[in-house]
Structures are given as structure tokens and as C-alpha cells.
Amino acid sequence: MDFFISNAYAQAAPQADPFGFLLPMIVIFGAFYFLLIRPQQKKQKAHTELVAALKVGDEIMTAGGILGKITGVSEHYAVVEIADKTEIKIQKASVSQVVPKGTIEEA
């Protein structure tokens, strides 16, 4: 009965290609760097420069949507006038953008 079933012999394991695993990982890391990490670093750098350049008289919008005019600036905080005789103290890091002069009068 041995002629119906052939013997199965073990074969040598194929040699692993050292670049077969490494190359796709490098490509994936490069894609993550250029699509996610680098743009976020540029955005963070631009925001840091914006916060460092804040001065009295700038009209700003905070991350919470508050529109106002800076009346005082310290190292970490800014005093913002949001209405006549109404001022609030905010962290400078919460400023999302400096709006063009005259924006407050239009609103």
C-alpha cells in the first residue's frame, strides 16, 4: 500500500532576506515623518513665533473664539479687552491668530 501515499520529506527553510523586512519599515517611517511629524513641527514653530511676537494693540482671536485687543503683555499672560471697560487675562498660548486691525470695530 505504500505506492498510493508518497513520502513527504522536509525541505530546507528559505533564507530570510535582511532587507525584506527593513526596507518597508523605512518607507513607512519616511511617510509618517513627511506626512504627519514634519507638518506638525512647522505648525508648532509658527504658533510659537506668533505667541512670542504678541504686543500691545494687536487684535487677536483665542482658541475659544474670543475676539479682543491686547492691552497688556507679560511673559506668560496677556490682558485682552473684549468690550468697553471689560478685560480678561489669558495665557498667551491660547491665542490662535492675530486678526487684521479694525476687525473688532466691524464685529
Explain what the structure shows:
With 107 residues, this protein is α+β, with helices and mostly antiparallel strands. It contains 2 helices and 5 strands; from the N terminus they run αβββββα. The protein has 2 domains: 18-53; 55-107, SH3 type barrels, CATH 2.30.30. The protein is 36% helix and 27% strand. The model has no long low-confidence stretch (mean pLDDT 90).
Task: Spell out the blueprint of helices and strands.
Layout: H1 18-52, E1 59-62, E2 67-73, E3 77-83, E4 86-91, E5 95-99, H2 103-106
Antiparallel strand pairs: 1-2, 1-5, 2-3, 3-4
Q: Which class of secondary structure composition applies to the elements?
A: alpha+beta
Molecular shape: rod-shaped
Going by CATH, the architecture of the largest domain would be Roll
- CATH topology description of the largest domain: SH3 type barrels
Count of alpha/pi helices: 2
Task: Give unreliable regions as ranges.
Answer: none
Query: SSE order in H/E notation?
Result: HEEEEEH
How many domains? The number is 2
Strand order of the largest sheet: 4-3-2-1-5
Largest sheet: 5 strands, antiparallel
Rg for CA atoms: 30 Å
